[in-house]
Amino acid sequence: MRPILLASTQSDQNLYRFPPSGSFKALPVRLDLHKSDLLTFLGAHSFTRPLPLMPNSGAGTKRTMPVLKKAGRKGSSTPEEKLPPYEPNIEEPTTRADFMKYWFPLSLDDKTAQKLLWISESGSKVVRTSDAVCPYPTRPERYEHSPQVLCKEGLLGCRGYWEVAYDGWVVIGVVSENAPRKGQEVPCGIGENSTSWGVGRSGSCFQVWHNGENTDVQMPSSSAMGVYVDQPAGIIKFLSVEGEAEEEEVRLIYKFKAKMKEKVFPGFWIGTNSFCLLRKKRAEIQEN
Predict the structure, then answer these.
(1) Beta pairing, strands 125-128 & 118-120
(2) Which of 6, 34, 51, 167 has the fewest CB atoms within 10 Å, i.e. the most exposed one?
(3) Could you tell me the pTM of the whole model?
(4) Measured between alpha carbons, how far is 187 from 9 in angstroms, rounded to an integer?
(5) Domain spanning 51-287: which superfamily?
């Protein structure tokens, strides 16, 4: 049985060096990370088999007009808006302009945030700077051990695209509605079970996580990532956002073909001295 992912509770300024080759044979990772975070995240993963690709489950999808649904409390600052009608069997977007047609406004759900995470900027930023504990009340939907948070908005029967600015050691992912959150019997970290998918930056490469296994993708680093989900078709794309301002473009990091039979939510794993910031669409910035 693999160990359960536990959030760190003590500060340590020393860097962690990987154990002898017999422990993590398939992990070519080069990280300058907080010791407790690295032990926490690596201790719950198995890296000995190649990353499996899941079959497509999008056959026979009917055309619908989806509306964004919120998973959190009422009164969110994120505006309600309709996505384009769902049309099956159309060409997948490839340029940033194509992806932006499916823009999906998001807000972080503090009801799901593990207690080492701090939510700010009207629910658009999550930070973990130390071992300080945020006094969130205990809730059944809250992550208990893994330093993670979900968004209020989920996707079901539609396509959606969002972008996240980040710094430090984070994993940006997609999580099924009923994925485990307590880590008592099934691992709950993003990418360490069969119902979540994630990408994090590791040294000179991106690392793709699913079902407790990972693969490296050699690409230049960036300060923002885009995520595209076609829930009925079972497609998840993680993209690197490159360039500046009006000239920004996206580059594919990895594409999953997955079985997603239930609503899925954007999710984030946050290491010490790291953050994720939900980016706004340019029109939203002008309105504010």
Answers:
(1) antiparallel
(2) 167
(3) 0.73
(4) 19
(5) SPRY domain (2.60.120.920)
